[in-house]
Design brief:
Blueprint: E1 3-9, E2 13-18, E3 23-29, E4 35-40, H1 43-52, H2 54-66, H3 69-72
Antiparallel strand pairs: 1-2, 2-3, 3-4
Helix pairs in contact: 1-2
């Protein structure tokens, strides 16, 4: 899948957009073992990002790390 980086924060997250315009959020998780959770942004998350920018992405990344089970089912 062709993707372009829309926003990035080292060792935190990367926001990608595919050729169809869909947004995917890739969050770095873990402490001893580092892994990522990648999922498609839903409409509420897109609206939050459009309204608040990087702050919304930072908040979402923290939420993913604090409650990964809520996002595992949405993995791409």
């Amino acid at each position: 899948m062709d993707q372009k980086v829309v926003s990035e924060s080292a060792w935190n997250y990367t926001l990608y957009q595919d050729t169809a315009g869909e947004l995917f959020f890739d969050v770095v998780c873990g402490t001893v073992a580092v892994y990522t959770i990648v999922f498609r942004l839903n409409e509420a998350e897109k609206q939050s990002w459009e309204a608040e920018g990087e702050r919304a992405l930072n908040d979402l990344a923290w939420r993913v790390r604090d409650y990964p089970e809520e996002y595992l089912a949405r993995r791409e």
